[in-house]
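Entry 12.
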Amino acid sequence: MPRRPTLRIIETEKGFKFDVPASLTATGKRERFFYPEEKEANKHAAAVRKAYHERGTKAGTISPALAEQAYQAQAMLADLGVSVLDAVRDYVRRNANAGARLSVLEAWIAYEAELVKNNRSESTLKDYKRDRKALPESFLKLRVAEATEERIGKALDECTSKRGPAWNRRLREVRAVLRAAISEDLKQVSTKRKDPEILTAEQAAKLMEIAFAEGCALPFALMLFAGIRPDAEDGEMSRITWSNIGTTHINLSADETKTTDDRQIPISDNLAAWIKGHRDEPILPTNWKRKYQAVRKSAGIEGQDVLRHTFASMFYRLHGEHETIQAMGHTSWKTTQKFYKRAVTTAEAQAFFMIAPAGAKVKKPRTLGVA
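Predicted 3D structure (tokens):
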């Protein structure tokens, strides 16, 4: 039989010392305590003795199989510095919520329902539906409590060709779904949404000056004055060709757009001036991604779709509902009206669509006088 621990109190220069042997600690390591008063040390020792006694009386009820499982669990946790009890407590905590027992698929569908309930944008809902279908079935079958960061990463690597904007978007969505599943009030689905950030005509002009200096004015003009989505795995800049860019309109088919809806975007006079002389050149210059980030940083732009939002707001002020829906590729007026019917004056919108290369003459655009 193992020797019974003495659990003695020893007076030292540091105080009354109480040693707890490794066999009686939660960490499996020897622990040492010092108390200024002997009474406090004795109190701690009494608690340890009681726990030792209770463990001894209960030991007879533990089956050999359970004891073997406990031994194996302790061995697995040894290098992590975590006790078996701590690991079990963490597991119980993560599984205590009813939402944690849902499958990832069930939690995802419930989250989509909340998006609809809280009037989130159609594009957001489309992203969630599309990415749910892309995720591996094995991951969707996991319970929410089982969806660790490692499993999430493996699932995203399996359904996404490389770690980039699309991978990061899907990661944000997965985390939002999992957090909402174990949250009673679904705080992740906010009913409040900030208006999209847009540039003033002056800021847009400064941006184009910087882009011109970097040798990438053409793609920035397409994003700013035609609302082309920026380059990304699911962006439009990487797929657009000169065959899409006519003399009066830019025509994007479902193969080039993010939403798989056709878009027809009028080419304004100032955009025509930026396009002029470049039709024999590649639309995207060499080192495009580096230049794209450098220009955005110099112009103080942080949001991913600031240029597209700016175009939508300015375009709506001059052309109204129908043309804006067509140019933006929206399926209804609701999205356009909610986020792009901005407090932009007609004069500022006209100034925006007169931003052109140095020396180019551009007429003041006409307006429908949209309210």
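Annotation: The CA atoms of residues 144 and 178 lie 6 Å apart. The two ends are 90 Å apart (CA to CA).
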